[in-house]
From TrEMBL:
Origin organism lineage: Bacteria, Pseudomonadati, Pseudomonadota, Alphaproteobacteria, Sphingomonadales
The name this protein goes by in its record: Aminotransferase
Entries under Gene3D superfamilies matching the protein: Aspartate Aminotransferase, domain 1, Type I PLP-dependent aspartate aminotransferase-like (Major domain)
Location of this chain's protein in the cell: Membrane
UniProt source species: Sphingosinicella xenopeptidilytica
Principal location listed in the UniProt entry: membrane
Amino acid sequence: MTFLSDAIQRIQPSPTLVVTQKAAALKEAGRNVIGLGAGEPDMPVPDFVAEAAIAAIRGGQNKYTNVDGTNALKEAVRGKFKRDNNLDYGLDQVTVNVGGKHTIFNALLVTLNPGDEVIVPAPYWVSYPDIVQFCGAKPVFISAGIEAGFKITPAQLEAAITPKTRWLILNSPSNPTGAVYTRDEIAALGEVLRRNPHVWILSDDMYEHIIYDIAFATIADVCPDLYDRTLTVNGASKAYSMTGWRIGFAGGPAQLIKAIAKIQSQSTTNPCAIAQAAATAALNGPQDFLKARVETFRGRRDLVVSMLNQTDGLKCATPDGAFYVYPDCTGLIGRKTPSGATLATDEDVAGYLLEAEGVAVVHGGAFGVSPAFRISYATSTELLEDACTRIQRACGALKAA
């Protein structure tokens, strides 16, 4: 008999964090490993953001704050939503949390009951299904593979909705594929949601500022009549390289925001006061550096896509946003490694790349669409070129079944 709860037994550790930790352990043991598992920009935190944190420390901002964020940061979040997304939120419609994952966890925890359903397009960010399951609800997956540009259709959405559906999670740009829904595509999904007023929308916009040739759009702006049942989630982690600072935020209906504050008061209490001061500076400060970072990511994207598409057995789409690629590895399944092992799954492929060439990637099964794997290109061009060369070498060493 176990003393652990049913809820904790319904979930698994985050696969992306497992891969990252495994790569780190191998490095510490002396292996030459290139970790492409973590979704973490290698760029530094902007100087003006770091200076704001230092000033907060020196100014004694080391006490408790309001549970769900300082007024200063909430005002900065309001300004960001208005400036970037044409969305107006009051202070009572804004929540600040310990990272975007915490925002999503809080929102689902305060709204889901056993038997409820949450629609999760696949490939999906690894934490969505587990959070839903932790809450006792059921994730309902809609699969959209490489041939569909990794984007669901209105017909698929319509077919997935039942009377038990509580949420649709919409992530654009996507982790793990980098797919971006256009304004027209979002509007088409909105038509379906308009006919189903019991379904709420969680719009995960974390990669908003890492986007290439498609204009960013978010559903509460595209479909203003859905504003009252949309939670627009974002954060400081990706755009401002503040992954470790743990600041996520969202705008949404006041009743939902109040419930999120209630659960947060009994769990983490407030996010770090110093990190909040830094995030306030990030949102209020100059944003022009973001364009240069996007161009850096674009160059890395183009390099990785080109090299993977020159690799025997791989097919890689060009993403429109974020800093991930999601190559299809169907061509590797069934092949044999030099030691004679058969690659039966994409998890086998990921294990082989790590063992043979020291390249850590995350297998597609973790994201709900196989056979594939995810590569994060949020690291230097030199390391990416080395990693892709290793992947080419590893794939070239495989033998036909």
